[in-house]
């Protein structure tokens, strides 16, 4: 009997339960949005540091190691951002669904009224992901081209 009562309550949540879920969904959206941009910022800073360090490396093996690290970073950042985008989309859709039930419009109107708009943010994330792929490819070229690696290592100051 208790199970059926819980099932009924889960299928028909109260207004206060929906408001709590709505708050949580919006908090999750903010979290994933901040996480995406923080990960991008850290990635580009670390990658820039690796690239700035290359002219000081005299060993081709160390240049290759830096490239392997950069490619691993590129791959993990790409996967992480795609997962965060997915979770953001799930929570955003749930927030909009709850808004229709409660008569709210904060999330929906906020997204529409945003100066950048949803498509501009999506394009910015797509460009950032494309940049990560290009940087990963450039590092792969550096790693697998022995002539380029030796030329880069010869730039090192004695």
Can you walk through the features of this model?
The protein has one domain (2-154). The chain is rod-shaped, with a radius of gyration of 23 Å. It is built from six helices and no strands. The longest helix has 43 residues, at 60-102. 87% of the residues lie in helices and 0% in strands. The protein is mostly helical.
Task: Provide a quick synopsis of the model.
With 158 residues, the chain is mainly α. Helices cover 87% and strands 0% of the residues. The protein has one domain (2-154).
Q: Tally the structural domains.
A: 1
Strand tally is: 0
β-strand percent reads under 5%
Distance between the terminal alpha carbons, to the nearest Å?
80 Å
| Class inferred from helices and paired strands | mainly alpha
Largest sheet composition: none
Outline the low-pLDDT stretches. none
**Shape call:** rod-shaped
Features:
158 residues; 6 helices
Give the SSE map.
Elements: H1 2-11, H2 15-53, H3 60-102, H4 106-113, H5 117-144, H6 146-154
Helix pairs in contact: 2-3, 3-5, 3-6
């Amino acid at each position: 009997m208790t199970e059926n009562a819980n099932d009924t309550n889960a299928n028909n949540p109260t207004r206060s339960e929906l408001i709590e879920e709505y708050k949580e969904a919006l908090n999750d959206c903010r979290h994933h949005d901040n996480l995406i941009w923080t990960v991008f910022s850290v990635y580009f800073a670390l990658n820039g540091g690796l690239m700035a360090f290359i002219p000081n490396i005299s060993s081709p093996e160390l240049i290759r190691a830096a490239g392997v690290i950069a490619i691993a970073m590129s791959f993990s950042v790409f996967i992480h951002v795609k997962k965060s985008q997915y979770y953001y989309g799930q929570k955003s859709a749930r927030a909009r669904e709850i808004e229709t039930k409660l008569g709210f419009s904060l999330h929906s109107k906020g997204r529409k009224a945003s100066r950048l708009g949803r498509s501009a943010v999506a394009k910015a994330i797509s460009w950032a992901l494309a940049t990560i792929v290009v940087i990963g490819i450039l590092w792969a070229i550096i790693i697998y081209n022995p002539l380029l690696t030796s030329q880069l290592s010869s730039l090192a100051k004695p």
